[in-house]
Design brief:
The chain crosses the membrane at residues 28-48, 89-109, 140-167, 198-223, 284-302, 348-368, 374-398, 410-431. Residues 244-263 are annotated as: Disordered. Its main location: membrane. Belongs to the battenin family. By secondary structure, the protein is mainly α. The chain folds into 2 domains: 19-75 and 85-232 and 272-438, MFS general substrate transporter like domains (Growth Hormone, Chain: A), CATH 1.20.1250.20; 238-271. It has helices at 17-55, 58-67, 89-105, 115-134, 139-163, 171-195, 200-206, 209-221, 234-252, 258-269, 274-305, 318-337, 348-368, 374-402, 405-415, 417-438. Helix 11 (274-305) packs antiparallel against helix 14 and helix 11 packs parallel to helix 16. The protein is globular.
Length: 440
């Protein structure tokens, strides 16, 4: 039994101007939510490092990572690869592991928390992350700030992907484009403000406006449907809907049929059981595994190889080359995450294989140093971003299209673990690779 107006059907032509305006508001709202949700995650990868440099010397930082059991590179910087003593994967792991843990377990219990409460929690944690890192007086305080940003991003991603099932499917395009925009705007805004002479602390305090925009986007820009559990849990909603449907059944059917039909309503509108959720996850593996593989290869390139792709005789310095690699990668992500209106790719595994091929080519390039110029790397990393962004938006688009209505909300949240799992594995693999090359 499906309730009318439930969710996520592709809309027909809007019947009036008001319908088109509502559709535009929801698309814009999800675009801003994607931008705001990933913004702190992106900025922390750079800002936390800048703050830590002021607190401790590079050698002290490296020894702290060694104390935690993390492999570090050649601190003497005598390697022909011009290595930093600590792999950039160290900061990545601090920024992704809390998100991964949250995505692994939250989908099984998150329905108990209303969407309005989740969004407020994301806003509080994102704001706290900016405040903690900007005013940090110790390494531990900075790391806690990064963890807050990670929890905010992870909770927001699985919540907003689940939220999208209450709207027309085109909001996924807005969400994907917004998350892609976070990478470009976060990197450019942070670099621009610090380049203009502002300190990292002042820059982070200015960025407190981003959680405020998330508040405005969710509570004032979106036009939520009546079925959205804004301030009550899904279980409460199921109980209310189930009792209403049972009363209707008693009015419309014979009394001897009431018990059988009410059982059908319970199965259709009640919360998913653990068995059902595990069955849904099994069916989602065809989406999760290719997405995880794309991100494993992608972030292995970004955190394990990109720093080592240095061309000494190029017109740009090592830092400038690395900055342009990251910028072009983020540009590719933005373009492909905004591409659903033009192109939809069902075979995500093809994107996975192409991304793995990218990683192999660049690994061999680092090992044998046969690439003639950074210009070729610029093209490859732009292409890398295109593949990663396309895999992300198409994965969630086809999940929303192919999974049953009853399972869709849980499926969208559970599938978000794919990219985080790939990123975490890439961070772990990057440590020994970074150490190997830096010791040459």
């Amino acid at each position: 039994m499906e309730r009318s107006g439930s969710v996520n059907a592709d809309p027909g032509p809007p019947s009036d101007t008001n319908g088109r305006f509502t559709q535009w508001r929801n698309w814009a709202g999800f675009w801003l939510l994607g931008l705001c949700n990933n913004f702190a995650y992106v900025v922390m990868l750079s800002a936390a490092h800048d703050i830590l440099v002021k607190q401790e010397s590079r050698n002290t930082t490296a020894s702290n990572f060694e104390t935690l059991g993390l492999q570090v590179g050649n601190g003497s910087n005598s390697s022909r690869y011009d290595c930093n003593p600590v792999s950039t994967a160290a900061v990545l792991l601090a920024d992704i592991l809390p998100t991964l843990v949250l995505k692994l377990f939250a989908p099984f219990v998150i329905h108990k928390m209303p969407y309005g409460v989740r969004v407020l929690l994301c806003i509080v944690m994102a704001s706290s992350s900016f405040l903690l890192v900007s005013f940090s007086s110790s390494v531990l305080m900075s790391i806690i700030g990064v963890i807050f940003a990670s929890f905010s991003s992870g909770l927001g991603e699985l919540s907003f992907l689940s939220l999208s099932v209450f709207f027309t499917r085109d909001v996924l395009e807005g969400w994907g484009s917004g998350t892609g925009g976070a990478g470009v705007s976060g990197a450019l805004l942070y670099s621009g403000l610090t380049q203009a002479g502002l300190s990292a602390r002042v820059t982070l305090l200015i960025m407190l406006v981003v959680p405020f925009f998330m508040f405005i986007s969710y509570f004032f820009l979106l036009v939520p449907p009546s079925l959205l559990p804004q301030w009550r849990s899904r279980e409460t909603e199921y109980a209310v809907v189930g009792s209403e449907d049972r009363r209707q059944l008693m009015d419309e059917s014979e009394e001897e049929e009431e018990q059988e039909r009410s059982t059908i309503v319970e199965r259709t509108t009640g919360p998913l059981t653990i068995t059902e959720k595990l069955h849904v996850i099994k069916g989602l593996l065809r989406f999760i595994l290719p997405l995880g593989l794309v991100y494993l290869a992608e972030y292995f390139i970004n955190q394990g190889l990109m720093e080592l792709l240095y061309f000494p005789n190029f017109s740009l310095s090592h830092a400038e080359q690395y900055r342009w690699y990251q910028t072009l990668y983020q540009l590719g992500v933005l373009l492909s995450r905004s591409s659903l209106c033009c192109l939809k790719i069902r075979k995500i595994w093809v994107l996975s294989l192409l991304q793995v091929l990218n990683a192999v080519i660049l690994f061999v390039a680092v090992l044998y140093q046969f690439l003639p110029s950074a210009w070729l790397v610029f093209v490859i990393v732009l292409y890398e971003g295109l593949l990663g962004g396309a895999a992300y938006v198409n994965t969630f688009y086809f999940i929303s299209k192919e999974i049953k209505d009853r399972h869709r909300e849980f499926a969208m949240a559970a599938s978000s673990v794919g990219d985080s799992l790939g990123i975490a594995m890439a961070g772990a693999f990057s440590f020994p690779v970074h150490r190997y090359f830096c010791d040459l």
